[in-house]
Protein backbone atom coordinates (compact mmCIF):
# COMPACT_ATOMS: atom_id res chain seq x y z
CA UNK A 1 0.00 0.00 0.00
CA UNK A 2 1.53 3.30 -1.11
CA UNK A 3 1.62 6.46 0.98
CA UNK A 4 -0.93 8.05 -1.35
CA UNK A 5 -3.31 5.17 -0.77
CA UNK A 6 -2.90 5.56 2.99
CA UNK A 7 -3.64 9.28 2.69
CA UNK A 8 -6.76 8.52 0.66
CA UNK A 9 -8.04 6.01 3.20
CA UNK A 10 -7.32 8.34 6.12
CA UNK A 11 -9.16 11.10 4.26
CA UNK A 12 -12.13 8.75 3.86
CA UNK A 13 -12.21 8.17 7.61
CA UNK A 14 -11.92 11.87 8.44
CA UNK A 15 -14.64 13.03 6.06
CA UNK A 16 -16.91 10.23 7.25
CA UNK A 17 -16.54 11.48 10.82
CA UNK A 18 -17.28 15.00 9.55
CA UNK A 19 -20.28 13.66 7.64
CA UNK A 20 -21.62 11.85 10.69
CA UNK A 21 -21.08 14.86 12.96
CA UNK A 22 -22.74 17.26 10.51
CA UNK A 23 -25.73 14.98 10.07
CA UNK A 24 -26.21 14.48 13.81
CA UNK A 25 -25.90 18.23 14.39
CA UNK A 26 -28.38 19.08 11.64
CA UNK A 27 -30.89 16.53 12.93
CA UNK A 28 -30.44 16.98 16.68
CA UNK A 29 -28.36 19.99 17.60
CA UNK A 30 -29.89 22.58 15.32
CA UNK A 31 -33.65 23.04 15.14
CA UNK A 32 -34.92 24.91 12.06
CA UNK A 33 -37.19 27.87 12.67
CA UNK A 34 -40.92 27.45 12.04
CA UNK A 35 -40.84 29.44 8.75
CA UNK A 36 -38.04 27.21 7.44
CA UNK A 37 -39.97 24.07 8.39
CA UNK A 38 -43.14 25.40 6.76
CA UNK A 39 -41.35 26.49 3.58
CA UNK A 40 -39.84 23.02 3.27
CA UNK A 41 -43.24 21.32 3.26
CA UNK A 42 -44.62 20.39 -0.16
CA UNK A 43 -47.19 18.05 -1.63
CA UNK A 44 -44.44 15.48 -2.10
CA UNK A 45 -42.98 15.66 1.42
CA UNK A 46 -42.62 12.12 2.85
CA UNK A 47 -43.20 10.91 6.40
CA UNK A 48 -40.28 11.33 8.78
CA UNK A 49 -39.74 7.60 9.24
CA UNK A 50 -38.04 7.45 5.82
CA UNK A 51 -35.02 9.11 7.46
CA UNK A 52 -34.16 5.76 9.03
CA UNK A 53 -32.87 4.82 5.57
CA UNK A 54 -30.34 7.64 5.92
CA UNK A 55 -29.31 6.14 9.27
CA UNK A 56 -28.74 2.77 7.60
CA UNK A 57 -26.63 4.41 4.89
CA UNK A 58 -24.47 6.06 7.55
CA UNK A 59 -24.00 2.73 9.29
CA UNK A 60 -22.94 0.95 6.09
CA UNK A 61 -20.63 3.80 5.06
CA UNK A 62 -19.05 3.46 8.49
CA UNK A 63 -18.50 -0.19 7.63
CA UNK A 64 -16.92 0.88 4.34
CA UNK A 65 -14.34 3.17 5.96
CA UNK A 66 -13.33 0.26 8.22
CA UNK A 67 -13.45 -2.48 5.57
CA UNK A 68 -11.35 -0.41 3.14
CA UNK A 69 -8.27 -1.19 5.26
CA UNK A 70 -8.55 -4.91 4.55
CA UNK A 71 -6.84 -6.38 1.52
CA UNK A 72 -9.97 -7.75 -0.26
CA UNK A 73 -11.43 -4.23 -0.34
CA UNK A 74 -8.29 -2.40 -1.42
CA UNK A 75 -8.78 -2.27 -5.20
CA UNK A 76 -12.46 -1.38 -5.06
CA UNK A 77 -11.90 1.25 -2.36
CA UNK A 78 -8.91 2.91 -4.03
CA UNK A 79 -9.78 2.64 -7.71
CA UNK A 80 -13.52 1.99 -7.67
CA UNK A 81 -14.65 4.47 -5.04
CA UNK A 82 -11.54 6.63 -5.21
CA UNK A 83 -11.65 10.25 -4.13
CA UNK A 84 -15.32 10.44 -5.06
CA UNK A 85 -16.17 9.40 -1.51
CA UNK A 86 -14.48 12.50 -0.11
CA UNK A 87 -16.13 14.72 -2.72
CA UNK A 88 -19.56 13.14 -2.20
CA UNK A 89 -19.40 13.49 1.57
CA UNK A 90 -18.37 17.15 1.44
CA UNK A 91 -21.07 17.98 -1.09
CA UNK A 92 -23.70 16.06 0.87
CA UNK A 93 -22.75 17.80 4.12
CA UNK A 94 -23.06 21.19 2.42
CA UNK A 95 -26.41 20.17 0.94
CA UNK A 96 -27.84 19.12 4.31
CA UNK A 97 -26.65 22.37 5.90
CA UNK A 98 -28.29 24.42 3.14
CA UNK A 99 -31.59 22.58 3.62
CA UNK A 100 -31.40 23.09 7.37
CA UNK A 101 -31.21 26.85 6.80
CA UNK A 102 -33.96 26.96 4.19
CA UNK A 103 -31.77 27.52 1.11
CA UNK A 104 -33.68 25.06 -1.03
CA UNK A 105 -32.76 26.35 -4.48
CA UNK A 106 -29.02 26.37 -3.78
CA UNK A 107 -29.52 23.08 -1.97
CA UNK A 108 -31.01 21.61 -5.13
CA UNK A 109 -27.84 22.51 -7.01
CA UNK A 110 -25.75 20.76 -4.37
CA UNK A 111 -27.92 17.66 -4.34
CA UNK A 112 -27.43 17.38 -8.11
CA UNK A 113 -23.67 17.69 -7.64
CA UNK A 114 -23.81 15.05 -4.91
CA UNK A 115 -25.86 12.77 -7.13
CA UNK A 116 -23.31 13.16 -9.92
CA UNK A 117 -20.42 12.20 -7.64
CA UNK A 118 -22.24 9.25 -6.06
CA UNK A 119 -23.30 8.09 -9.54
CA UNK A 120 -19.66 7.88 -10.61
CA UNK A 121 -18.99 5.46 -7.76
CA UNK A 122 -22.20 3.51 -8.33
CA UNK A 123 -21.53 2.85 -12.02
CA UNK A 124 -17.79 2.29 -11.56
CA UNK A 125 -18.38 -0.39 -8.94
CA UNK A 126 -21.15 -2.02 -10.96
CA UNK A 127 -19.05 -2.13 -14.12
CA UNK A 128 -15.49 -2.85 -12.98
CA UNK A 129 -15.58 -4.21 -9.43
CA UNK A 130 -18.06 -7.07 -9.04
CA UNK A 131 -18.53 -8.48 -5.58
CA UNK A 132 -16.44 -11.48 -4.56
CA UNK A 133 -17.85 -11.95 -1.06
CA UNK A 134 -20.70 -10.93 1.21
CA UNK A 135 -18.36 -8.41 2.81
CA UNK A 136 -17.98 -6.71 -0.57
CA UNK A 137 -21.74 -6.67 -1.03
CA UNK A 138 -22.42 -5.34 2.46
CA UNK A 139 -19.71 -2.72 2.88
CA UNK A 140 -18.76 -1.66 -0.66
CA UNK A 141 -21.66 -2.11 -3.05
CA UNK A 142 -24.65 -1.83 -0.70
CA UNK A 143 -23.75 1.57 0.84
CA UNK A 144 -23.33 3.23 -2.54
CA UNK A 145 -26.38 1.54 -4.08
CA UNK A 146 -28.47 2.73 -1.15
CA UNK A 147 -26.90 6.18 -1.26
CA UNK A 148 -27.51 6.47 -4.99
CA UNK A 149 -31.17 5.53 -4.63
CA UNK A 150 -31.52 7.91 -1.69
CA UNK A 151 -29.89 10.86 -3.44
CA UNK A 152 -32.03 10.42 -6.57
CA UNK A 153 -35.15 10.31 -4.39
CA UNK A 154 -33.95 13.29 -2.33
CA UNK A 155 -33.26 15.33 -5.47
CA UNK A 156 -36.90 14.99 -6.51
CA UNK A 157 -38.11 15.96 -3.03
CA UNK A 158 -35.68 18.90 -2.96
CA UNK A 159 -36.88 20.04 -6.40
CA UNK A 160 -40.40 20.41 -5.04
CA UNK A 161 -39.05 22.24 -1.98
CA UNK A 162 -37.18 24.67 -4.21
CA UNK A 163 -40.03 25.60 -6.52
CA UNK A 164 -43.34 24.65 -4.89
CA UNK A 165 -45.02 24.93 -1.51
CA UNK A 166 -48.26 24.37 0.37
CA UNK A 167 -51.43 26.29 -0.52
CA UNK A 168 -54.39 27.13 1.70
CA UNK A 169 -56.86 25.64 -0.76
CA UNK A 170 -54.79 22.55 -1.52
CA UNK A 171 -52.65 21.63 -4.52
CA UNK A 172 -53.44 23.10 -7.90
CA UNK A 173 -54.01 20.96 -10.96
CA UNK A 174 -50.48 21.67 -12.15
CA UNK A 175 -48.95 20.67 -8.82
CA UNK A 176 -50.91 17.42 -8.93
CA UNK A 177 -49.69 16.74 -12.45
CA UNK A 178 -46.09 17.49 -11.47
CA UNK A 179 -46.39 15.27 -8.39
CA UNK A 180 -47.75 12.39 -10.46
CA UNK A 181 -44.95 12.85 -13.01
CA UNK A 182 -42.42 12.80 -10.16
CA UNK A 183 -43.93 9.57 -8.84
CA UNK A 184 -43.82 8.03 -12.32
CA UNK A 185 -40.19 9.12 -12.70
CA UNK A 186 -39.20 7.58 -9.36
CA UNK A 187 -41.05 4.36 -10.14
CA UNK A 188 -39.39 4.10 -13.55
CA UNK A 189 -36.00 4.82 -12.04
CA UNK A 190 -36.48 2.08 -9.45
CA UNK A 191 -37.36 -0.40 -12.19
CA UNK A 192 -34.27 0.81 -14.03
CA UNK A 193 -32.10 -0.08 -11.02
CA UNK A 194 -33.34 -3.65 -11.10
CA UNK A 195 -32.94 -3.98 -14.86
CA UNK A 196 -29.48 -2.41 -14.84
CA UNK A 197 -28.08 -4.75 -12.22
CA UNK A 198 -30.48 -7.68 -12.51
CA UNK A 199 -27.76 -10.21 -13.27
CA UNK A 200 -26.10 -9.32 -9.96
CA UNK A 201 -29.35 -9.26 -8.01
CA UNK A 202 -28.79 -5.71 -6.70
CA UNK A 203 -32.16 -4.31 -5.69
CA UNK A 204 -31.18 -1.96 -2.88
CA UNK A 205 -31.61 1.29 -4.82
CA UNK A 206 -35.07 0.22 -5.95
CA UNK A 207 -36.10 -0.65 -2.40
CA UNK A 208 -35.00 2.77 -1.15
CA UNK A 209 -37.15 4.52 -3.74
CA UNK A 210 -40.04 2.15 -3.05
CA UNK A 211 -39.92 2.98 0.65
CA UNK A 212 -39.68 6.66 -0.24
CA UNK A 213 -42.86 6.43 -2.31
CA UNK A 214 -44.55 4.63 0.56
CA UNK A 215 -43.49 7.50 2.85
CA UNK A 216 -45.10 9.97 0.44
CA UNK A 217 -48.28 7.86 0.49
CA UNK A 218 -48.44 7.88 4.30
CA UNK A 219 -47.86 11.65 4.56
CA UNK A 220 -49.88 13.05 1.66
CA UNK A 221 -53.67 12.93 1.78
CA UNK A 222 -54.69 14.52 -1.50
CA UNK A 223 -56.17 11.62 -3.47
CA UNK A 224 -54.40 12.59 -6.70
CA UNK A 225 -51.04 12.22 -4.94
CA UNK A 226 -51.86 9.75 -2.17
CA UNK A 227 -52.99 6.84 -4.34
CA UNK A 228 -50.46 7.20 -7.19
CA UNK A 229 -47.72 7.17 -4.54
CA UNK A 230 -49.12 3.91 -3.16
CA UNK A 231 -49.33 2.41 -6.65
CA UNK A 232 -45.75 3.45 -7.35
CA UNK A 233 -44.58 1.99 -4.04
CA UNK A 234 -46.29 -1.34 -4.72
CA UNK A 235 -44.85 -1.60 -8.22
CA UNK A 236 -41.40 -0.57 -7.05
CA UNK A 237 -41.28 -2.96 -4.11
CA UNK A 238 -42.76 -5.92 -5.99
CA UNK A 239 -40.78 -5.57 -9.22
CA UNK A 240 -37.47 -6.71 -7.68
CA UNK A 241 -39.25 -9.85 -6.46
CA UNK A 242 -39.87 -10.77 -10.10
CA UNK A 243 -36.15 -10.73 -10.82
CA UNK A 244 -35.36 -12.76 -7.71
CA UNK A 245 -38.02 -15.36 -8.56
CA UNK A 246 -36.64 -15.72 -12.08
CA UNK A 247 -33.11 -15.94 -10.71
CA UNK A 248 -33.78 -18.62 -8.13
CA UNK A 249 -36.01 -20.69 -10.39
CA UNK A 250 -33.28 -20.81 -13.01
CA UNK A 251 -35.20 -18.82 -15.61
CA UNK A 252 -33.78 -15.84 -17.48
CA UNK A 253 -35.27 -12.38 -17.23
CA UNK A 254 -36.10 -10.76 -20.57
CA UNK A 255 -33.35 -8.56 -21.95
CA UNK A 256 -34.79 -5.10 -21.57
CA UNK A 257 -32.81 -1.93 -22.14
CA UNK A 258 -31.80 -0.44 -18.79
CA UNK A 259 -33.44 2.83 -17.84
CA UNK A 260 -30.33 4.15 -16.12
CA UNK A 261 -27.80 3.82 -18.88
Automatic annotation (TrEMBL):
User: Keywords of this protein's UniProt record, alphabetized?
Assistant: Membrane, Transmembrane, Transmembrane helix
Q: From what superkingdom does this record's organism come?
A: Eukaryota
* Membrane-crossing residue ranges in chain numbering: 12-29, 49-70, 77-98, 104-126, 138-161, 173-194, 201-218, 224-245
In its UniProt entry, what is this protein called? Uncharacterized protein
Amino acid sequence: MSNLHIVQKVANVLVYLLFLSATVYNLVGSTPSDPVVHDGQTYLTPSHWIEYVWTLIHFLLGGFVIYQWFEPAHEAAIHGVGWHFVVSVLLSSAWLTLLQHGHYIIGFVFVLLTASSVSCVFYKLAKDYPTTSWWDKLFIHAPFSLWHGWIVYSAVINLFQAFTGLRENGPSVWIRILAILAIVFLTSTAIGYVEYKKHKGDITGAVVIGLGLLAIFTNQHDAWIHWPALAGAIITLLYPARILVLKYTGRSAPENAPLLG
